[in-house]
Amino acid sequence: MEGEETVLIFDLGGGTFDVSVVTVGKFNTRRIINVKSTAGNTKLGGIDFDNRLVDHFAQEFYSKYQKDLMSNPKALHRLRLACDQAKQTLSYANQASIAIVALHEGIDFSSCITRVRFEYICADLFHSTLDIVQKALDDAGMTKDMMDEIIVIGGSTRIPKIRKLLSDFFNKRELYSFEDCHETVACGAAIQAAKLHHDTSDAIQDLQLSDIAPLSWDILIDDGVIKATSCIVKKNSKIPKDTQISVTRASKPSNEFTMKVYEGEEPPAKGENRREFNLTGLPLATFGVVKTDITFEIDANGILGITATENTTGHLEKYAVKHDETRLSGEEIENLVKDAAYQRDMDDLWRERMLAKNSLESYCLKMIGAIENQKNVIAESEKKTLLDKCFETIKWIDDSHLANQEKFEEKLEDVKTVCHMMTSTISDDSEDEIEDSDYEASDIDSDDEEDDSDEDEEDSEDEEPAPLKKPKIEC
């Protein structure tokens, strides 16, 4: 094969992590991609880093206020959104801040976290990715020195510490990435789908992919492991692939038996991805007499097809093991889209309500402060009336949990009317300050960041890797 290169692909996304070792080269006019090995962790990704931040800030909240956030799903959701934004900020800044109004039981919460602290609380997760990289290399029978390129994809690869660990693992090698690491997997899936549907586009006509099975397949029949080994298709086997075994009745005489198929690397009894099939219509016979031939075939889509043929009668059963059980139906997807739209509308209503509530509360607090500062120029009777009105309004805010946006706006106009009638002696500067106290959207948005002003914050001790470059290979 001409110009063959070996590439390691490091894919760390929002919820899963995969590492693949592939070779890319040309044979005559065709571009050929051979997958040598794949390894990963289906339960490691950006959401796990978010969870560490949520735990960190929830503990901080508890330390400050002796209130447990874990019992408040809505507060946890808002905190998680803020943590995700902080995590993204730490990819290019040494410090990130979060500020959430009325996070739990009306308590406003604000805090900050440095990149060094973030790297510390996620250190074990970051380092665990290197174990999977080494496993992928071992499965491919290669060493890290044999890699021509290391390509990183997935949003979580923007985290500087992860890129530095990976670069150091490969002896400070340069890392490569495509323009948008979020879209890379989708582009690859689109190309593979086009190939499977025999698309005639010129862009993919000369492209050929030789894929492998990412996980092993095991089989159990009548609760007994067949033959000496239960592994029918080994992990990293080339696909398409077919395997055939012959089995006899593994229990007392019956005209049916149950076949259980497992996907994964755990022992079959503990496998999570299990499919169960019943082979019926068999002749009633004693143990060991009736034999059944079972053929397993994995196609280019990774779908396992099972054909069971009983030798005596020729009775045949066919099954297809798909992953539809974990996928949503069209109706479920449509319902989720509708629910998301409804929740978005409800979030907008809540946002506007909080803006109105905070504007009213801020106006009253600023007015109280201005009155106290100008107490020598305000008559006692006017001062008492103003303070009573402001404190009365604040108490109304605390008691009005169900008040909507319009109610808060009406109350604000009422307070302003009373205050304007009696504040002619307050300095213009004080009144201007009160008028400017209305909250803007950024004051309650947990996703927005505050400017960092602490120049003495400790910088990360680790040197950041060089900016990612576009891969030289063309796939």
UniProtKB/TrEMBL annotation:
One of its GO terms (molecular function) is ATP binding. Gene3D superfamilies: 1.20.1270.10, 3.30.420.40, Substrate Binding Domain Of DNAk, Chain A, domain 1. Residues 424-475 are annotated as: Disordered. It comes from the Eukaryota. Residues 428-465 have a biased composition (Acidic residues). Keywords: ATP-binding, Nucleotide-binding, Stress response. Belongs to the heat shock protein 70 family. This is Putative HEAT shock 70 kDa protein cognate 4. It comes from Daphnia magna.
